[in-house]
Amino acid sequence: MEFKNLLIENAEGVVTLTINRPQALNALNSEVLTELGSALYQLEYDPGAKVIIITGAGEKAFVAGADIKEMAEMSSYEGHRFAVKGQHVMMAMEKMKTPVIAAVNGFALGGGLELALGCDFIYASTKARLGFPEVTLGIMPGFGGTQNLARLIGPNRANELIFTGRMITAEKALAWGIVNEVFAPEELLDKAKETAAAIAGVGLLGVAYAKDAIANGLNMTKEDGFRYEASLFGVLFATEDQKEGMAAFVDKRKAVFTGK
Ligand code: CAA
């Protein structure tokens, strides 16, 4: 599929996926959501795509939200379908085996913050501003924000951010545990690529199963989560990567993982 609104570049397994609609601060309209869903599906089944970084084009924004001009005319039914469409993208990132890192280079508002929260973790630039302005538009977050933010930082801070519609700085987002690290704007993408390359070099089956255990385990009782973890741990002993990783340790050499 040709993408009108996405730039995709693969450098040795580290894929940088850039939302490229800077004239609208990369706002997510239906077309961008369709393209994102399809790009993520393609990347999930591309053995050459080991880690994905999502970022926004231009100097100003990661993604300034769902497209308000498109939403302005929606009926209740269309609003519901639009939310479900956005949620499919967020869920696809959570369900895919490939790790996804958000590099938040500017405004991450509404659906843009939801896109970042849908990733496995977030790096931000000092310029980033994060928030949920939906209530200022007479609506509420609809691409998973109420669920993902409250699970990540607890309900009280999520309530404050969502009820006020205020933006917070990258530093505050760091203190609240929304972002993992904050970098100077010119460093952000390189730092994300550095971390992505480190992940791309380890046993990716172990990473994929750990991602699965963390994401699914959060929806289980602790005992079920432990059981699930042990099952996935056991499955890894049937892989070539486990044999290679442990043999390399014993032989005092660097492991060469094949993802098999
Ligand atoms: N949807 C559509 N267009 C948007 C947009 C959005 N979310 N955000 C910015 N744009 C457009 C602007 O309309 C403007 O286009 P024109 O030049 O054609 O007028 C262009 O991008 C540049 O934006 P501004 O001139 O507003 O830039 P600024 O620097 O003055 O302000 C901003 C930046 C504070 C981020 C401001 O653009 C803004 O408040 N944007 C909207 C943020 C928002 O409310 N997001 C939540 C959307 S609702 C949502 O996401 C629902 C959900 O959960 C699914």
Bound molecules: acetoacetyl-coenzyme A
Strands side by side in the biggest sheet: 1-2-3-5-7-10
Q: Output the CATH class name of the largest domain.
A: Alpha Beta
CATH superfamily of the largest domain: 2-enoyl-CoA Hydratase, Chain A, domain 1
Please report which band the strand proportion falls in: under 5%, 5-15%, 15-25%, 25-35%, 35-45% or over 45%.
Answer: 15-25%
The termini sit apart by 28 Å
Average pLDDT works out at: 97
Largest sheet: 6 strands, mixed
Count helical runs: 11
CATH architecture field of the largest domain: Alpha-Beta Complex
Estimated structural class:
alpha/beta
Tell me the overall shape: globular
Q: Tell me the helix content.
A: 40-55%
Q: Strand-and-helix sequence, N→C?
A: EEHEEHHEEHEEHHEHEHHHH
As a whole number of angstroms, the C-alpha radius of gyration is 19 Å
What number of domains? Answer: 2
Q: List low-pLDDT spans.
A: none
Description:
By secondary structure, this protein is an alpha/beta fold. It has 2 domains: 6-200, 2-enoyl-CoA Hydratase, Chain A, domain 1 (Alpha-Beta Complex); 204-251, Lyase 2-enoyl-coa Hydratase, Chain  A, domain 2. The protein is 48% helix and 17% strand. Helix 1 packs parallel to helix 3 (76-95) and helix 9 packs antiparallel against helix 10 (222-236). It starts with 5 loop residues before the first strand and ends in a 9-residue tail after the last helix. The structure holds acetoacetyl-coenzyme A. Residues 24-25, 27, 64-69, 86, 107, 109-111, 114, 133-134, 137, 141-143, 145 line the site of acetoacetyl-coenzyme A.
